[in-house]
Amino acid sequence: MRYYLLTLGCPKNSVDSEGMAMLLSQAGYGGTADPDEADILLVNTCGFLTAAEDESLAALRELAGNKRRGQLLIAAGCMAQRNGERIVREVPGIDGLLGTRRWMEIVPFIQGLRGGTGQRALGRYALLGDPEQPLDGPVPRPAVVAGSAYLKISDGCNAPCAFCSIPSFKGKLRSRPTQAIVAEARALVAQGAHELILIAQDTTDYGRDLGTPDALPDLMQAILDGAPGLRWLRLMYAYPGHVSSRLIEVMAGDPRICHYLDIPLQHGDAGVLRRMYRPSKVEQVLDTISAMRAAMPDMAFRSTFITGLPGETQSEFANLLQFIEEIQFDKVGVFTFSPEPGTPAGSMAGQVSEKTKSRRRERLMAAQQRISLARNQAQVGRVLDVLVESQGELSDRKGPVSLARSYRDAPEVDGLVVVPGVLPIGRLARVRITGALEYDLIGETVREEAIALIG
């Protein structure tokens, strides 16, 4: 039996897909990159935005259109949980729906589908909602690729953001036990991970459901103690207002923690933030970033913003532009507001036109490109450790290059360090930065007694 697995959406989905792949492998299923060769077609869907649902549906329809007799087509993940009815309605030939918190039951679920047993729902076999036996042990994972791995510390979210549908299908925050996370971290490092990236819907809320708010600093310290071979520990998806002085102390106190923080702020105007049901004390954000830069002068910040929330005025947008100028983020992502069904913002008065939303996004990105270039130019002359991800060739045919990331760059969302020559993938190297672009850096290997590789 062979399976084909397509993953859509964010890194949290990627972790779940890796877990499903490992469970299927352990049960004797073989993976294939060709859906025509597969007995099971599995799509781990994204349902965060309507556009993401449309992408998931398109992938499912394409597989359904070429599906042969005897193949199973399963929709897993966020859209299956959030809007399974739409999948069943719009994808003829779908055989099963597997929810966001049930992926660890993939093997018995497939066995039930093939045997004609299971819980029938929505006109198909579905496994949705919370499991009877939560997964509190290490997540089964395949071998580490390119020296980096995501480590999910919780699922679900308690934040009431007006624009976000995630709590409706992910549920409330549920933190994984510390010992399970540390065991998984240790296993990943033993498999060759130099970098672990902590992810969740809100990493800084870790432990609150267990009665231990501000547990993230202790978790990070436990990971470092439990996996002493780890070189980089990176923190993603921090919530404004949850960055504590203890977290800053731990981040500044161990060189293995990347001086990097992804803190999705969504806007810089207090009125818009209130309508978003987000923390609206902009001064508190400024104070937090100032405190982190005081403790870690080389700190790199990434954030994301939304343009065009209902009622957003030109003055409020101007405040957002001023906000990013004041903070000087290293990296920024900008999205236009999407009115998601069932969310408070989806039915708010004062919906902004698509043209205005897009124009504001372009203006914000143009302003940030200038800031990012200046922040990158300040790196020229520095010697940085980089993690080599892949190799390629420059378009001007000047020979092969290695594509790497420094501590300032998270995978998939940030820039690269381009280094002439061929360096081993998945290894750490030391480079001197010689050039800067809006998103990427140019470097050259530093040869200390003819040894450039450090990991």
Question: Mind sketching the topology for me?
Answer:
Blueprint: E1 2-7, H1 11-26, E2 30-31, E3 40-45, H2 50-65, E4 72-77, H3 78-90, E5 96-98, H4 106-115, E6 120-121, E7 124-127, E8 148-152, E9 154-155, H5 166-170, E10 174-175, H6 178-190, E11 195-199, H7 216-226, E12 232-235, H8 245-253, E13 257-262, H9 270-275, H10 282-295, E14 300-307, H11 314-327, E15 331-336, H12 354-377, E16 383-393, E17 400-405, E18 417-420, E19 428-436, E20 441-445
Parallel strand pairs: 1-2, 1-3, 3-4, 4-5, 5-7, 8-11, 11-12, 12-13, 13-14, 14-15, 18-20
Antiparallel strand pairs: 6-7, 9-10, 16-17, 16-19, 17-18, 19-20
Structural commentary:
33% of the residues lie in helices and 22% in strands. The chain is α/β, with parallel strands linked by helices and 455 residues long. It has 3 domains: 2-127, Rossmann fold (3-Layer(aba) Sandwich), CATH 3.40.50.12160; 148-377, pyruvate-formate lyase- activating enzyme (Alpha-Beta Horseshoe); 383-445, Beta Barrel (OB fold (Dihydrolipoamide Acetyltransferase, E2P)). The strands form 4 sheets. Strands 2-1-3-4-5-7-6 form a 7-stranded mixed sheet, with helices on both faces. Helix 6 (178-190) runs parallel beside helix 7, helix 7 packs parallel to helix 8 and helix 11 (314-327) packs parallel to helix 12 (354-377). The longest helix is centred in the last third of the chain and has 24 residues, at 354-377.
